[in-house]
């Protein structure tokens, strides 16, 4: 059966509303968004503008913290993480496009702690596709769309910075 | 021909020399190093990539700086590091070397970082070890010092961005220098416009022209309009032989002073692999001047060695 995909912009609007609500509960001076490279980084860029956030945001690239390094090696060029603010005592809202096994989230949390000790970390995702292998649960979620193993969502952004999602069959063994 | 540094998938599994490394692998190492440079600014300067791996620093020849930077690099990757200072016995080197390696392999070594006075020793080890073990050459005889060559390339790329318009001069004891050789091969592969070697005739090896290097014995002429100057250390033991008259004489002709530096482009950078002999190959005014990037090289060296170790460790078996 062909899966009917919701519009990515609707999911984004829903996630944005959830983040706004979350922001209302936190001290505005000490909240920073951190996007997980690459989809999460795009989302954060857009959220910073749409929510008119003044505090600098960051990008986390989990390549150096992955638990499958021994299987996949360091093949592609990785952009370094960039956290241009003091992490100690801050409330971090981590943003990712797709939440799946939870392993990326685990790696990102580990990496954040190497920058300092945040007051709290929350997780906001555009899509929760199920299939968790670790006890990770998002605080904010644009939509829950269960997806079978072997298929993945691909987030893209057009010239007007609007989001789109698509489905991609994965290569066997990838 | 089989390249002993690459596995059957064409991935880097040992780093033995910059010679014969394809451009995409050199670039991949430099790009990966770039991701490690910002780590030095963080509160926790470690990443868990090599957690649980054992790195053995096997230094059959003395070295403080290179061994320390390899140790720092391995520790920042969360590996366990073991430093072994082994004085090579003068006889039966081949056999005892491989016996040492077999013993350490039995202790579950994952990476050997090897410095040896005999050219080719790291190749011998690389041929001997099982496929899951990786060898990184930290300097073998007069042959190669690939991580120094790579960190020099990183430094040049950092300051000059692109190699294709660059004229690079290597100055000093090129005859005995494994650094010069590693630099020349890497610069050639990365497409530097012109490579020059500047030295007295007694310190120039044969065959440089065949490698595409322009040779100068006059420093002023050789430095004219260059973008990058790589100074080499003049090893004191060379003075004792008949190769050079005296260090004062050498400094007069080949020491890098402000006056000689003025022949290079105004934005030329000055590099040196260290340790420096001030007043022999380089004047303090230059070594501590605005154009010197010698301390940047040290910092980049850690990131480049992290990149090399994490890339070879991630190669498929």
Summarize the structure.
With about 170 residues, chain A is of the alpha/beta class. Chain A is about 25% helix and about 25% strand.
Task: List its traits.
heterodimer; A: 174 residues; alpha/beta; 5-stranded parallel beta sheet; two-stranded antiparallel ribbon; B: 317 residues; Rossmann fold; 2 domains; 4-stranded parallel beta sheet; 9 strands; globular
Describe this structure in words.
The complex is a heterodimer of chains A (174) and B (317). Chain A has 174 residues and is of the alpha/beta class. Chain A has helices spanning 8-24, 39-50, 69-72, 103-113; strands at residues 31-36, 58-60, 91-99, 120-128, 140-144, 151-157, 163-169. In chain A, the strands form 2 sheets. In chain A, strands 2-1-3-4-5 form a 5-stranded parallel β-sheet. In chain A, strands 6-7 form a two-stranded antiparallel ribbon. The longest helix of chain A is centred in the N-terminal third of the chain and has 17 residues, at 8-24. The radius of gyration of chain A is 16 Å and the shape is globular. The model of chain A has no long low-confidence stretch (mean pLDDT 90). With 317 residues, chain B is an alpha/beta fold. Chain B folds into 2 domains: 23-144 and 300-312, Rossmann fold, CATH 3.40.50.1370; 146-297, 3-Layer(aba) Sandwich (Rossmann fold). Helices cover 38% and strands 15% of the residues of chain B. Chain B has helices at residues 23-36, 65-76, 93-106, 121-128, 146-160, 178-189, 219-223, 236-240, 247-254, 258-261, 284-287, 294-313, and strands at residues 54-59, 80-85, 111-116, 134-140, 167-171, 194-198, 213-216, 228-231, 269-271. Chain B is globular. The two termini of chain B are 20 Å apart. The model of chain B has no long low-confidence stretch (mean pLDDT 92). Classes of the chains: A alpha/beta (174), B alpha/beta (317). At the A-B interface, helix 3 and helix 4 of A face helix 1 and helix 12 of B.
